[in-house]
Amino acid sequence: MPRKVRIVERKLKRQRAVGRVFLDEGIIEIEQRQKPREWLSTLVHEALHVAFPGMEEKSIAAAERKIADILWRASVRRIHQ
């Protein structure tokens, strides 16, 4: 996996997903039409897949909810540039 991970926002609804990760390419794709809190949660979820590729989905989802909630309550938000 590449050292840097690139985040790409695009419409993913046809893939029936809000996020995907391509480990070999170092790419995280995120559905661009999500609400801010959902977007943050999706980013955390896909980042966990990158950091812990062997982790079970159930564990990823549990960690995602906890981390995304902590970040949201700490006022972490995405800033469009």
Explained architecture:
- The chain is of the alpha+beta class.
- The protein has a single domain, classed as Metalloproteases ("zincins"), catalytic domain (Zincin-like).
- 41% of the residues lie in helices and 17% in strands.
- The chain is built from two helices and three strands; from the N terminus they run βββαα.
- It has helices at 36-51, 57-73; strands spanning 6-10, 19-22, 27-31.
- A three-stranded mixed β-sheet has the order 1-3-2, covered by helices on one side.
- Strand 2 and strand 3 (27-31) form a beta hairpin.
Main attributes of the structure:
single chain; 81 residues; Zincin-like; 2 helices; 3 strands; globular
Write the layout of secondary structure elements.
Elements: E1 6-10, E2 19-22, E3 27-31, H1 36-51, H2 57-73
Helix pairs in contact: 1-2
The CATH topology corresponds to Zincin-like
Shape: globular
Instruction: Give the class-level CATH name.
Output: Alpha Beta
Biggest β-sheet: count, sense, barrel? 3 strands, mixed
Report the average pLDDT across residues.
93
Strand neighbour order, sheet with most strands: 1-3-2
Structural class: alpha+beta
**Rg (C-alpha, Å):** 12 Å
